[in-house]
Design brief:
Distance between the termini: 24 Å
Radius of gyration: 16 Å
CATH topology: OB fold (Dihydrolipoamide Acetyltransferase, E2P)
Keywords: Cytoplasm
Domain CheW-like: 24-164
Helix content: 10-25%
Oligomer: single chain
Shape: globular
Low-confidence stretches: 1-21
Pfam families: CheW (PF01584)
InterPro entries: CheW, CheW-like_dom_sf, CheW-lke_dom
Structural class: mainly beta
Main location: cytoplasm
CATH superfamily: CheA-289, Domain 4
Order of helices and strands: EHEEEEEHEEEEEEHH
Length: 174
């Protein structure tokens, strides 16, 4: 288990030294299939190895179940299923990213986590419109860094969508 702590508290104004660097943002990079994604590091509470979950009856397939994390019931969402990226496999690299979004703790299952990447505003490009194939509602944009490209997910919007409201309901029922 890796616990992440940030020097920045949510809702706090940036320090002058950070403002002088420009609008830099840090993203936790993770993989799903062959693609690399990024989420705001300030939303990440910790990273854990994948462990079995308690299934919840009648939950949508993308909600794997719940775990008890130090007394808190945490719903676990499999992002590969959520994004229709094929059948997930669980191995020694599979991890659960524990997120804290507006006081709500949720876990997301991803194939692997690579690193924390700092991107400037100039390195973040708008997401191209993908039509019905992929909704860009949940994307911040595409982060470019040398030969890498990160699909930047707006985890707040994703986790506040109507179907993710089911995650809250399941956490309460568990």
């Amino acid at each position: 288990m890796l616990e992440l702590t940030s020097h920045k508290a949510e809702g706090q104004p940036p320090h002058a030294s950070e403002m002088a660097q420009g609008e830099n943002s840090e993203f936790l990079a993770f993989t799903l299939g062959n693609e690399e994604y990024g989420i705001d590091i300030l939303k990440v509470q910790e990273i854990r190895g994948y462990e079995s979950v308690t299934r919840i009856v009648n939950a949508p397939e993308f909600i794997k179940g719940v775990i008890n994390l130090r007394g808190i019931i945490v719903p676990i969402v499999d992002m590969r299923i959520r994004f229709n990226l094929g059948t997930p496999t669980y191995d020694q690299f599979t991890v659960v990213i524990i997120l804290n979004i507006n006081g709500r703790v949720t876990g997301i299952v991803v194939d692997s986590v690579s690193d924390v990447t700092t991107l400037s505003a100039q390195q973040i490009k708008p997401a191209p419109e993908m039509g019905a194939i992929l909704s860009t509602d949940y994307l911040i944009g595409l982060g470019t860094l040398d030969d890498r490209m990160l699909i930047l997910v707006d985890i707040d919007k994703l986790m506040s969508s109507s179907e993710m409201g089911l995650v809250d309901q399941i956490a309460v029922e568990a």
